[in-house]
Structures are given as structure tokens and as C-alpha cells.
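Example complex used in Figure S2.
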Amino acid sequence: MSKIMGLSGNEAVAHAMRQINPDVAAVYPITPQTELMHQFAEFHSDGLVDTELVLVESEHSAMSATVGAAAAGARAMTATSANGLALMWEIVYIASSLRLPIVMPVVNRALSGPINIHCDHSDTMGARDSGWIQIFSENGQEAYDNAVMAVKISENKTILLPTMVTLDGFILSHTLERVEILEDNEVKKFIGEYHPETSLLDVDKPSTYGALDLQDYYFEHKRQQFEAMGNVLPVIEQVSKEYGKLSGRDYGLIEKYRVDDAERVIILMGSSVGTAKDTVDDLRNAGEKVGLIKIRVYRPFPYNALREALKHVKALAVLDRAISFGTFGGPVFTDVRAMLFGNGVSLPMMNYIYGLGGRDIDKAQIRLAFDSLKDVVKTGKVKKEVNFLGLRD
Amino acid sequence: MASLKELAAREQKLAPGHRACAGCIPALTFHQVLRSAPGHVVASCATGCIEVVTTIYPYTAWKIPFIHNAFENSAATISGVEAAYQALKRKGKVTKDIKFIGFGGDGGTYDIGLQSLSGAMERGHDMLYVCYDNEAYMNTGIQRSSATPFAADTKTAPVGKVRKGKKQYPKNLTEIIIAHDVAYAAQASPSFWRDLNKKVEKALSIEGPAFINVLAPCPPGWRFPTEMGIEMGKLAVDTCFWPLYEFENHKRKLTYKPKEKLPLSEWTKHQGRFRHLHQEENKHLLELAQQEVDRRWKELLFLCGEPA
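Predicted assembly (701 residues):
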């Protein structure tokens, strides 16, 4: 039996954390993540969780303590945003290389500079090669669901990799929505007990973590991480299916929205998907053959699912909420293009960078992206690949 | 307190056969600290000499659970391990009594790891942090740290025609940690093994955060003959460059007072990094170094309630 509540995205994830009831959580404030841990700290003070809170002095120590706790066999979590994630950077890579199944909500915020506290995806985009699984959320409900599922995905014995569950800063983190949460014991049963194979606290079977790994083994260990990442997508699909049975909400690696007979398609992630779905409905009502694809799992990249979904499409626009300097487009655009090229598909593609630093995106902007694809369908050619939406000239 | 015989008979937590240099006093420091902790111990260590020489994959010299995370976060890492222990013990998933020791060199403790250490001490984890202070970044090839003594020759503050080594006096880390009002803090030396053993036992028996700063002479970094490490530690203490004292119940106490306070030159004259101090034209630098040692010693005597 689920319970319907009015929750902000931060509160929804805090409820997921309450139900996960991690052994250890490292806490450090940063806007817009702060309220997530406020809520969790309240649960802690009210005795609703057994968690050991470590109230650290920086995000660097938050991730360091989380790594220590996870290596000690604890279910360990922390949460952050933007510059906090950037400060953790070094240890983010160490967490994945130690194969610690940490789950970390990241409330997406523009990375300084200039300093800005509002949403874009530049923070997690920088960590896309760090060996963490990255799952993006469209709304508060998904953020809650993804946080619960992430525990089971990360702890899968064929994976043992950390997961970032992202939710858009302010747009999701601070917006009240209708969220269905599972019963506490349903979550407890779903994620199960955590039984690590090795642990620092297993004093009878001592292990060395973080050994110096030079020319003769480092490469093999990186290969093992690569292989583990290769096991992730089927596990996510399996866990999503099990979660669907429990919650009635079944998620794929991607979500196709009115794509089946669409000629013009856009790809995007996060909270803007809702606005884009509305725009697709408007255009469909006007008889236009448009659709959208939401990427839910960004790392590992859902290569096959996307290829299949785009088979019949005539023109594509990828909307990136992050900018990548010195390349030929935003990060999602370059990933999608590389995937298509690798499959010998020559699909004309446009890239729209949007919403940086919390700039609003509305239906008019998304409609503009769809409109610009009309000409591409006609001519099969893209005049300008990288474009901006909602930007002053 | 354990006798030398007892200590020697205890099972080693750190195996021999690691790759430390000949005459490495930091390695000896680890042995002495770990032998002073007879029960279950989980250790962490910052990136640095000892981490490097004890854990080259697929080998490990650690016979106890050990974690190396990064350079600046040994304290934060072991604090996370301790938090996990508290949580799992409460839940009955861990039943044994375990002690937690974080290690770091002076680079990883005085400099890059200071914030992480300060955080862990302030939060009050039940842990001991041991700094093995060899007075420079030795693992990367002898660069100055904030622990490096005044006028010492290092690769980043070398002695040249115009500049004569490190310009600053060493940071007083022990006092910085004492300012956190920790459960226990001390300065120690492996040259005084009985004193060090007692301090480790005490630190581990007191609940709450404890810190021990150990001066650990480094033959290649300080440039003295490999057989002289223990002597170097002893002279650092007898010149009052490295006083042995402890902080407990909000009070400082000297644990050793030299019968005769030796001049600093008795310590510096054996070390290549101070060779220039013993040349006529740099005499004033040695005098400045001596004055600072005297000033700090006097201040410590006052703080310990000792006659000057």
C-alpha cells in the first residue's frame, strides 16, 4: 500500500533515505541540496532512522567518510550539489574504483563560475566518466523511486558500483508535488539486508583497501570497472521491473513519448521533460508528427535502447542542459551522435543548449526546436549544429 | 603498561618485508604504535611513504584491516569507518571491540589533511590519529611542509647563494589539536619507546578523539647515517626541539624533562639538511633557530606548570 503525500523533491528523497535507513550518512549543506538533509536530520532527531550521522566539515570529507563507512560494510549515503560535487571529485573516482555501492542524490545546480545556485546539469556531467551510475529524474516521484531502486542496483553482486540519483535543483528539489511513497516495510524488503563480501570491520578476515596499484595491475582493475559498468543496464531493467510490480511504476532505461510514428524527435533529461511532453501534445493535436525521448539512465549510456527508438526518425534535436567547451556540442548530443555514427546511421541532428544557470525553459522554446527540425526533414541537412534556446543575442 | 618483552612477543599487525628505506623511523613508529594496541585495530593511512611501502598491489604488509583513501583524508576516512562501527555495533551486526587509528605524515596532516583532521577531532569520533612527522614531503622527494624546521634545506626551499632554506618556523600542530580540547593529545618519539607505548595505550583507553604527534626521523630526507635514527629522535627531545608532553583533562603535562638541555646544534650538526647552519656566514640562522626553540620550550614549561 502506498501513501500519497505532498512533497518537494528534496523531501521525497529524504523519505526514500528514511526508508532505506542507511547505516551511515555524511551531511554537509549546499544549496539546493540542503533541505534534503534538513529533512533527513529531522527524521534522525525524531528517532525514525538508526543512521549514524557524520556532520562533516566539507564535501570532500563527506565523500571520504562515506567511502570509509562503505568499506567498513555499512550502507552509506551522502548528498550534494554543484561545487560540493566538484570538491568531492577526487574521492568520487576512488569510491567507484573501490567498488563501493554508495548511493548519492545530487541536486543538479550550475557549476561555478560565475557562481549561480540554480539548475543545470553541468555538475553531474563533469562526473560522467567517474565510474558512477547516473540516473536522472523527471519529477519528485521519480527522484524518490530512483533513490530506492539505486540501492538495489548498486549493491548487485555483478555491479558493486556507486550511483548518483539526480534531481533538478529548485525546479524539482523545492517544488511541492504529489508523490506516492511505499510502505516502510515494502522498501525494507525490496532493498533487503546488505551483506558485503569483505569489510574493514571483519577483523578475522583482514583486507587492505586502496593499495598502491602500479603498471602491472592498475590497467586490469580499470578493465574490471569497465566490465562491471557493462553489467549495469540489464540489472537496472530487472530492478525496475521488480519495482514496477511493487509500485505500479515501471521505468525503462529511456522513456519514449509518442515516438512510434514520429518524424521529428527531441532527446532530453530531467525536469524539462514534463514541459516537453506538453509541447509534444500540443503539436500532436495540431497534426504534427513529433515525439520525445527521455534519457533516464545516462551512465551507463543506454546505447541499444536509443538506437532502436530512433530507427524510423527523420530529424533529431538533442537538448543539453550543460555546455561543453571546445567540443562540437553538449555532452548528450555528442554521446547520441557517436552512438548513431557507430551504427552507420546518418540521422541529421541538431543540438540545443538550454536552461543554463536556471534559465527558464518554456513550451515556446521547445516548439522552436521542433519547428527548426521541419526544414531538416525537408532538406536532410542541418544548417547549424549547435544552437541555444532562450538566450539573449 | 607492557614490558619490552611483552611488546616484542605480541603478534605483529604490520608484517616485515615492506619496502621502506633502510633505517626508516616512520616504519618503526608504526610498529611501536601498533604493538602498543593489543586488541583489534582497523587502520587508515594518508597517501605517503608508509602507504606506498606497505601496500604495493598485490602485496600488503597489513595483517589488520587497512584503508588508504587519498592524501588529505585519512582522518575523515577513519571517522567514517568508526561511524559504521557505531551503527553496526548498535544493530548487533558487529560484536567485537575494535579500535580505530588513522595515520598520516606531516604533509598529509599538518598541510593538506589539516581540515579533515580538525573535522574528525571536533566531531568527537572514538579514534586515535597518529601523525608520523618526518618534517617534509619525503615520498615525493623532500619538499618543505609546514612541519619543516626553520632554515632546513629541502627541494622546494633549497639552500642557495641568496636564500638559505625554509623561511618559516614549523607550525605547532600539537597545540592546534589541543585547541580542539580533545580527549587526549601528546607529542612522542620512538626513541622513547616506553613513553610512546604509554601514550598510545592511554589514547586508546580514553573514549573520544585522541591525537599523537610523533617525530619520525628520515635518513634520506634529513641526511644522516641510517644507523642514527634513534639517536636523531633522542637529540630532538634532549635539545627541547621536540618536547615530550601530553594533554589530558584539559591540562598539559611534561612526560620527560631532559636532565641537561642540549644546544640545538647537537641535533643539527648530524644532518645534511642543516649543514649550512654550521658555516660561519650562516651562524645567525642557527642562533635564530635556537632562540625559537628556547621561546617555545619556555612557553611549554609555563603551560605545564613547570619551573622555568
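The two ends of chain B are 30 Å apart (CA to CA). The CA atoms of residues 54 and 60 of chain B lie 6 Å apart.
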